[in-house]
Design brief:
Helices cover 65% and strands 12% of the residues. The chain is of the alpha+beta class. Helix 1 (2-23) packs antiparallel against helix 2 and helix 5 packs antiparallel against helix 6 (128-150).
Length: 372
């Protein structure tokens, strides 16, 4: 009996590990989509079925195992829907595979009641550890009542219940705390992964993610024969803002400008902070004419925006924007970065606070030559 429960425990821990390994790089939606809930419920149900197949036979048609633990873990972390779905799958399999009998019906009703109870407890406004404790007490109570109804011999009832309680309490605690550890590990992993791609201040893409996005979008643009525009944006006289008001105020300006950029452009456009006071926007399938309109709209929006720092301090800022477009201004898509940078340089040379579209011959070297 101990060896069978040990096999059950190994299967359970293995499946928990595989589930977390599979989802470690997937950011699940906070509201848990129907698809994710369904997959999780089916996964939990399949785990329960495997535990049933390796269950301990204590009497004809009477088996005990750890099938309730997947339900408990599912309820604690994923909510009521996957828990109920998992309970239906396990309960249905118990009857279909082992045959219709009084014990099978009792077992099916028991697991459905446990699933419903777990779902209710999971919605309580208590800590996860408290809900786990309540769930264990509830599960052991329901299953003990089912054993009492199913077994006539009181000695067998006490022996089976004692083994069942001990195995489920020990393995349940191990599975719960192991899942807690894996969940925290995955959160840390995803946070570190996001920090490697996101700018810590604005939450926009950082320069590393911009490079990756530019390469991917460029390949997609060439493959589909579309246009691609790039805006390079720089805050005018940002150094004087830092010198006058301090870097903390400068950070507020950068953060709010990031919010304006997100609010101004389409959800699939790539908005990044490339460093310091420099930002960029990749406008997918956007002509140079439309890119200039979008850039001018952004410039005006920023110029009109009143940055309120405190009751005493508020001011307006200006930005300069350089624009380049493939294939409108260049037939070499890899030159978009350099061309947009040259256009931005030209915008600053002409007095700042303006939008300039790249044209052949307005490279930095040519501009410097014209200026003597």
């Amino acid at each position: 009996m101990i060896s069978e429960f040990f096999i059950n425990a190994c299967i359970l821990i293995t499946f928990i590990s595989l589930f977390h390994l599979f989802f470690k790089d997937i950011e699940l939606p906070t509201n848990n989509s129907f698809f994710v809930n369904s997959i999780s419920g089916i996964f939990s149900g399949c785990l329960g079925i495997i535990l049933l197949l390796y269950s301990v036979h204590v009497a004809p048609n009477l088996i005990i195992d750890l099938r309730y633990i997947p339900l408990l873990i599912t309820a604690m972390y994923l909510g009521w829907f996957p828990t109920i779905l998992s309970a239906i799958i396990i309960g249905g399999f118990r009857v279909l595979y082992f045959g219709v009998s009084q014990l099978a019906i009792i077992a099916m009703i028991s697991i459905l009641l446990v699933g419903i109870g777990f779902s209710i407890i999971s919605n309580l406004k208590r800590s996860r550890k408290t809900k786990f404790l309540f769930s264990m007490i509830y599960m052991l109570s329901v299953t003990s009542a089912a054993f009492f109804i199913a077994m006539k011999n009181s000695e067998t009832f006490l022996e089976v219940t004692e083994v069942f309680w001990l195995a489920n309490i020990v393995v349940g605690c191990v599975a719960f705390f192991y899942t807690e550890y894996l969940s925290e590990f995955i959160k840390l992993h995803q946070n570190l992964k996001n920090e490697a791609k996101k700018d810590y201040l604005t939450g926009l893409n950082n320069v590393r993610q911009f490079d990756d996005s530019f390469n991917n979008v460029s390949q997609m643009t060439l493959k589909n024969g579309k246009r691609l525009s790039l805006l390079f944006i720089d805050i005018d006289h940002f150094k004087s803002i830092n010198d006058t008001y301090g870097h903390s105020i400068g950070d507020i300006i950068l953060k709010r400008l990031g919010e304006i950029l997100i609010d101004t452009f389409r959800i699939f456009d790539v908005v990044s902070r490339n460093g310091g006071e420099e930002f960029s926007v990749l406008l997918i399938d956007c002509s140079s004419q439309q890119a200039m309109k979008n850039a001018e709209r952004l410039r005006k929006k920023v110029e009109d925006y009143k940055f309120v720092i405190s009751d005493e301090v508020s001011f307006h800022i200006k930005i300069s924007i350089g624009v380049s477009t493939y294939p409108d201004t260049t037939e070499r898509i890899h030159m978009l970065l350099e061309d947009a940078d040259c256009a931005l340089y030209e915008a600053k040379r002409k007095g700042r606070g303006r939008v300039v579209l790249y044209e052949n011959g307005n490279s930095k070297e040519d501009i410097q030559k014209r200026n003597g």
